[in-house]
Inverse folding.
């Protein structure tokens, strides 16, 4: 009887210790901008990104719902979904990667720069991103805050920009993210 | 001559108003749309787990009403039965553990957490 109890306790403990290694958010923010100066702003914001960080090894995954990108201009949003991102066919984008030399115990309220690498899948195409900087801190509530910016080329993701609008749309897209991760 | 000019001006004015309205059209107002589907939270998530692509084609970007028990909430989100995550367009008060119906736009299935995500949600009851 005792052994059974110990076994059960061990199981519960091991399960909870696995769960403790994960930090996550379901409302991660991502904005992208492909504006060209003096033309209408091409910018969208997504506040529905799921991000999970494994604090044991610094591995993280981000799942982006493409339909959740909101533009100021409704027509631009429609064109983005129908012609560029083709979000009916590719409703999700994701990033799977790892923060190099991640050390959970070193995190505190001051911002630290760390590098991360991984693969970004969008519009059915996957590209590798290597050694990009991000800022990491731990806020007073014990949440981990990740933020950073990077640029991608639309060509790398097989997105064609029609000639008519090519001067109003930048071929490099600036992406900014900010995730506040809570302990699971 | 004057008549023709006036007519031309009139057409131009109407044309530019139409063009303006097309370019600066309003966003969808999910809270005023009628739901295309009415489902329970558990049925919806089971459909997604069984067959993601078919279920996704059916619900993606559609306005739906989902009924379930509130298992978590914060200022601008509500979770139904641990499987439907709803982002609210306006913060509203809803009691934990209450049976609630939420209307929103389905933006997809989160396969990391096995949850369905809805945005621009409003609480029906």
């Amino acid at each position: 009887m005792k052994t059974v109890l110990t076994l059960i306790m061990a199981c519960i403990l091991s399960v909870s210790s696995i769960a403790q290694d994960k930090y996550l958010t379901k409302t991660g923010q991502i904005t992208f901008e492909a504006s060209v100066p003096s033309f209408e702003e091409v910018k969208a914001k997504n506040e529905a990104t799921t991000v999970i960080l494994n604090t044991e090894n610094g591995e993280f995954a981000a799942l982006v719902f493409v339909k959740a990108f909101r533009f100021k201009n409704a027509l631009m949003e429609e064109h983005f979904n129908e012609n560029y991102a083709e979000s009916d066919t590719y409703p999700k984008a994701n990033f799977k990667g790892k923060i190099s030399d991640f050390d959970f115990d070193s995190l505190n309220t001051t911002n630290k720069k760390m590098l991360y690498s991984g693969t970004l899948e969008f519009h059915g195409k996957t590209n590798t991103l290597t050694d990009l900087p991000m800022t990491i801190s731990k806020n007073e509530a014990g949440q981990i805050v990740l933020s950073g910016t990077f640029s991608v080329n639309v060509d790398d993701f097989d997105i064609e920009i029609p000639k008519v609008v090519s001067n109003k749309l930048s071929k490099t897209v600036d992406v900014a993210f900010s995730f506040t991760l809570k302990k699971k | 001559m004057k008549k023709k000019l006036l007519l031309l001006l009139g057409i131009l004015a109407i044309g530019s108003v139409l063009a303006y309205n097309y370019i600066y059209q309003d966003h969808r107002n999910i809270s005023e749309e009628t739901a295309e589907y009415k489902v329970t939270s558990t049925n919806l998530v089971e459909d997604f787990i069984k067959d993601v692509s078919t279920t996704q084609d059916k619900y993606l970007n559609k306005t739906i009403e989902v009924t379930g028990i509130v298992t978590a909430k914060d200022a601008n989100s509500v979770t139904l039965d641990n499987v439907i995550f709803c982002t609210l367009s306006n913060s509203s008060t809803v009691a934990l553990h209450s049976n609630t119906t939420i209307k929103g736009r389905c933006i997809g299935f989160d396969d990391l957490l096995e949850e369905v995500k809805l945005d621009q949600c409003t609480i029906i009851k």
